[in-house]
Write a structure and sequence with these properties.
The chain is mainly alpha-helical and about 500 residues long. The protein has 21 helices and three strands. The protein binds zinc ion.
């Protein structure tokens, strides 16, 4: 049998090769986080940069342009593929290969510098690397001179099609709604997940493994490891890698972290196999990706039915303090609203205020209104203004997140977009799955998994996130469903006085 001929077949072969190169670069990144000895960082940075440059060169060359011109779609799937590949190609052509390599290299070394700066709590070790990342991002932005605002080009990489003005509108309205809600809330319960410890790591791991198995994580296709900054990677639908981190003083880190990353992993696991090794075999945007992780972490994991299912499990593996607790205690505990300094430990209600802070600062750095040397001070000021808290040290402040060091600027808003979408999706899916609460209380997640496969996961990049949301919910992106959901939960857990 001979391989198919013609421009479409040639293009598919080329895209498959590029997809392989990109997945190899991801594998090196996974290895760096999970396995690599720290001293390997400099060489690893070179290796990742080389792979990313090769992938970029193989894609952005004239030959691919000619194939895109000549290829004729034979099926509707081909049409989707050609449309998405054309969009990527037009974007990639704008960016010189040298700059792609420099961005990758600066991201890897910046990541390493961030780790060292954290170890010695010294912003000066990080500052030149962040300055370099900002400078390179400005050069990247300059490749797209027609953009309305400089930040548009960065946002578009993570949330294709979204503009700064749109993100700003949503984020600001949400911020104002949240500030009001947090002011009105009065946390009543102690969070036993915090105060009841210590929780031995081995016992936590057993809880996490039991929960994940029930959700759909199997040993043949998934790996669960420990990483300082938890994340999910996938190399194909049969090789999904997630990480979490265990904190003996706080059960939430390990359990909810693992559920979160599982939500990301399922997206990739349930993609249509026809998309494999093409440009369609990815999430349509990080907002949608994050909607999946938030949905499992919060809408499922912090729901009352989930507490009902999980409480016996927590009792059997961790004993006290869960023996004395009833479902309502646990439900109140995992939903306790409290202003805090660390984003990834923040509760569902205050979480997006952390994103508002980061978005404000990164936008100011990109638009030249804030210099990197003034960042720690600006961070502390914004923390005071939005969260009402004083920052005691850099680890509880500006050095807590990996993103800026790794060059990921324009990424933060996607977390909030994900939270908003998750609330909208939940409304829609609970209408279509009337038994969802009873299923969750029984530890049965198959119906939910299937709904997500059908409505979100399988499509890959076939629809942009706006179209995907519209198809799944009949709506545009909205702030209100999320605010309503939070308000209902706070009322339900006695943290908000009912309207009189
Ligand atoms: Zn996530």
């Amino acid at each position: 049998m001979t391989a198919p001929n013609g421009p479409l077949a040639d293009l598919r072969r080329r895209l498959a090769e590029i997809s392989d190169l990109e997945r190899m670069a991801m594998l090196l990144a996974w290895d760096q986080e999970v396995m690599m000895p720290a001293a390997g960082a400099e060489w690893r940075a070179q290796q990742r940069a080389t792979l990313e440059r090769l992938a970029h060169e193989r894609f952005a060359d004239d030959h691919v342009g000619a194939l895109l011109e000549a290829a004729v779609a034979e099926t509707p799937l081909d049409e989707d593929l050609l449309r998405v590949a054309r969009r990527d190609y037009d974007k990639a052509r704008r960016v010189p290969g040298d700059l792609v390599e420099e961005l990758a290299h600066a991201g890897a070394t910046g990541h390493e510098a961030w780790t060292r700066a954290r170890a010695s709590s010294d912003f000066a070790l990080f500052e030149p690397h962040l300055r370099r990342n900002i400078e390179l991002r400005r050069r990247y932005i300059a490749c797209f001179p027609e953009a309305d605002r400089p930040y548009d080009a960065l946002l578009d990489d993570y949330e294709p099609g979204m503009r700064t003005a749109q993100a700003e509108d949503v984020l600001e309205r949400l911020r104002d709604g949240l500030v009001e809600l947090v002011e009105a809330a009065a946390p009543s319960a102690d969070d036993a997940l915090v105060t009841g410890g210590p929780f031995p790591t081995d016992a936590q791991r057993r809880v996490v493994e039991t929960v994940l198995r029930q959700v759909g994580v199997d040993d043949a296709r998934w790996r669960l490891d420990v990483a300082v900054h938890p994340f999910a990677s996938n190399f194909n639908a049969s090789d999904i890698r997630i990480t979490t981190r265990y904190n003996e003083a706080f059960l939430g880190d390990g359990l909810f972290g693992a559920l979160h990353e599982t939500g990301h992993g399922l997206y990739e696991r349930q993609m249509d196999p026809l998309h494999y090794r093409t440009t369609l075999a990815e999430a349509t945007g990080l907002g949608v990706h994050e909607s999946q992780s938030r949905l499992w972490e919060n809408l499922v994991g912090r729901s009352r039915p989930f507490c009902e299912w999980a409480l016996p499990l927590l009792r059997s593996h961790l004993g006290d303090p869960f023996e004395a607790m009833d479902v309502d205690d646990l439900y109140r505990g995992v939903n306790r609203v409290e202003l805090s300094l660390i984003r990834i430990e923040a509760d569902e209600t205050t979480y997006n205020l952390h994103i508002a802070l980061r978005y404000e600062l990164e936008l100011a750095m990109i638009e030249g209104r804030l210099e990197v040397k003034d960042l720690p001070e600006a961070w502390d000021e914004a923390t005071h203004r939005l969260l009402g808290l004083e920052v005691p040290d850099l680890l509880h402040g500006v050095l807590q997140d990996i993103h800026w060091g790794a060059g990921m600027i324009g990424y933060f808003p996607t977390y909030t977009l994900g939270n908003l979408m998750a609330a909208q999706l939940w409304t829609s899916l609970s209408n279509q799955l009337p038994d969802i609460e009873a299923d969750i209380a029984a530890g049965n997640f198959a119906g939910l998994r299937e709904w997500l496969r059908e409505n979100i996961h399988r499509h890959g990049r076939k629809y942009d996130s706006r179209e995907l949301l519209r198809r799944a919910t009949g709506e545009e992106l909205r702030v209100e469903p999320f605010l309503d959901y939070l308000q209902a939960k706070l009322l339900d857990t006695g943290q908000l006085a009912g309207r009189t």
